[in-house]
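Worked example (supplementary).
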Amino acid sequence: MRWKALAVLAGLVAALAGAGSAQPRVTLQVAIAADVNVVEAHNNYLGVAFAKNNPGVTVHAVGTGTGEAASRAVYTKIKAQADAGRRPWDLDVALVSMRYAAQMVRERLLHRFVSQMQFGRYVVGPDTEKAFGVEVKGYVVPMFKNQIAIAYNPAFVQKPPRTFAELEAWVRANPRRFGYNGIKGGVSGIGFVMAWVYYKTGRYDLFTQGPYDRRYEPLIRQAVEQLREFNRNVVLTSGNAGTLDALNRGEIWMGAVWVDQLVAWKNEGRMNPDITPVLIAPGLPIYPLYLVVPREAANREWGVRYVDFVANPQVQAKVIVEQFGWYPGIDPNRVMPLVSPQARALLFKGVTPEDLARYSLQMPLGEYYDAILLAYEEIVR
Amino acid sequence: MSRWERWAWGLATVPAVGVLVAAFGLPLLQSVGASFVREGRFTWENYAIVYRLYRQDVLYTLGVAAGGVALTFGCGIPLAGYLRLRAWPWVEFLLKVPLFVPFVVTGHAMRVFLQPSGTLAAMLTAAGILPPGARLGIGEGWLGLVLALTWKHLALVVLLLVGAFRGVDDSYLEAAQGFGAGTFRQIWAVLVPMSATSVALALVLTLTSMLASFSIPLLMSRGSGPQMLMIDLYYRFGQHGDFEVASALGVVSYVMASGAVYAYLRSVTR
Amino acid sequence: MTRSLLGLAFRATVGTLVLVAILGPLTSLLIWSLAERWHWPAPFPQQLGLKYWLRMLQGDPLRALTRGVGIASVTTVLALLMSVPVSYLAARRRLPAGPLVLALFVLPQAFPQLPVFASATVLFYRWNLAGTIPGVVLIHLVGGLVYAVWTLTAAFRAVGPELEEAAVNLGASATRTFFRIALPLALPGVAASAILVFLHSLDEFNGTLLVGAPYVTTLPVYMYTASLGYELQIASVTALILMAPGVVLLLLLERFLRAEYLAFFGHL
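After joint prediction of all chains, the assembly is encoded as:
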């Protein structure tokens, strides 16, 4: 069924792009700094469909691990080749976190390609313009967006919190029944910490728009000290998957998790289907994973075409949203009308489009981000 | 050996020495150097950061390793002594099994075994010892780590100690028996003192290995509370890309390992 | 009479404790590897099967396994070739700068590996070896050479110089003597050494995790990723596959493996 849909889709895209002429043999090297399911999406779905449209081209995606360390590995590899003055570089496309995409743009390691894409005009939103204070417009295409939300088990939580203040009160009343993964176990925990600082300081605009000023560090430290108190009644897990597992086993009743992994676990039948995500005020970060093309990539033009293929609204609707349960990376107004009603319902169960519009927050500027992490490491431990 | 042969043989040792210099010697020196540098300048700042952020973790690491050594030898000496005095082949075989279980696998096995609703909890529930749905807390903190480290290291310790104890001549044991010494008295009063060097060596090796353990705590950690030093190092290096502070943490671990370095160096210069 | 009864009770208690303590964690790997469905709070899986074992036979895990075996084979051959001259000279006390060189071959055992390998990763990036198979082989050679040199030195020492001296007295060159007498006599030791190095490389984790990133994934790294992602079935299957060769070896060869070889396994 799924393959038939993909074949139809592939044919459609082929007709659209007017491709099909014989092409030379090309192997696109794609590095994926994300979980195994994202690598699978590239190797088994996106890559296969792309190769079908472009005879002679194969897509070879490798995973580089999880969390920020995975993106750092990709960055270090590209940087080492740039520093050594070698050309061409062996990566054609990479999927990296916002933080390392920003760093690579700043260090001029990326190709500015979005304007050459057929679907480049659908690459919209504040996170495609600035990331951690770096001007990234034109260099990055979000493959999908991922929201951090509070997931709860309705068997134990009748009335989920709607705000951080309510969450704080709930945790006090139900010690060790809320979990998140600290700052060493991945970005969902980091995102929760950032959201906490936004909530306690009320200075979201300052932290995301700037300017950076060391004067605000006491403000941050104060918020993080309050987080230390909060953490006393919290279970800190080893990672996002650890939080999901603890939720699933009833060890905790509520936890901060990535929405996409929650959906993926449910799709695999590994997760109690009743667990529901909510977004609480003043909000939690949304964190895109960006597709980028290194400046000196060996198959740069094919890399651009591949990213263009992933940004195709049809592909976004069928693979990104329906197959994997992610939020679209490009303009949702172009993608959501193409998504089936069932998939729509699943995607927005618990977290509605209105919630997303209101409570999806950006990550802070790089300097504030580092300052918050350092304060956490020093104060909370 | 002719002169020509001597040269040829000398040359043939170069690849092995070269590999160790390039992949071990140089990196070791580089990490010591990097620990004193920040932004191209000599500084103590990396150590200041280690002190500020990780001093509790240094103590925690020492504590976990000390606990692990105590438990390992607390079990290992009586077991090895008993095995020396009385043959018990299948127990000796079982005790050797963890030798062949890699550290990462040990970490994962202990994780599924000890986690709050892991298989140990399930077994205890099935045996009626724990009420259904109960959770065990031992896998989460230092106790779980101590148990896992002991599980892995006990095999080597028993192996080394049984070997050393078998080197003690039977006549001493018979003499002790003649004075009415029981099994445990023979172990404490004869076997251990007569193999003191081997026991001390095994102790130093175990302690160092536990201080530097990485994959077991990596797989068993729960993200809160103090961490083992190698986890901090990996986090600094892997997530922050902060090679300098990671190196300072590394130098701290080298100092902790100095006992083993001394023991090993003595073994080759002897 | 009471004494022997007490002794029996003692043996039964200790034996049971050892059995449970050693086999408990390993049994949980087996249970998890067969659990097709296991929802909390059931104490045991609702459905057992070989689904996850079959999944090992394809895709990423199979690639990790074959790549790991390839890397281990190359590492073994290289380590043996490189360490034979060093060990032979060391066994005959003819190694130039002997103590210094031998120190180089014991220190990797004594120093904590992680900081050294982190530093090696930085160097390897400069040499364009990070994330490549040659880079991973090089890092596996560190441990591999240490094991090979010490086991081979012991093997050559056990052969004893008397036969060789006789051959030299009859006019054979030292090199010819080595190939005709010492090496053939030491072959069992060479085989043991090969097994050690191969297992070391197959199971190596710390160096591969750092130096292999981002492209080279071997089975231990794969198991780690799966375990942290709570793919506990996949991780447990991988774990069993990783420990199987060693345990089989112990079962078959326990009598032939000398204690000093076994001691090296403790550092795997």
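Two points are worth noting when inspecting this output. Residues 18-23 of chain A have pLDDT under 50 and may be disordered. Chain A touches chain B through 23 residues (CB under 8 Å).
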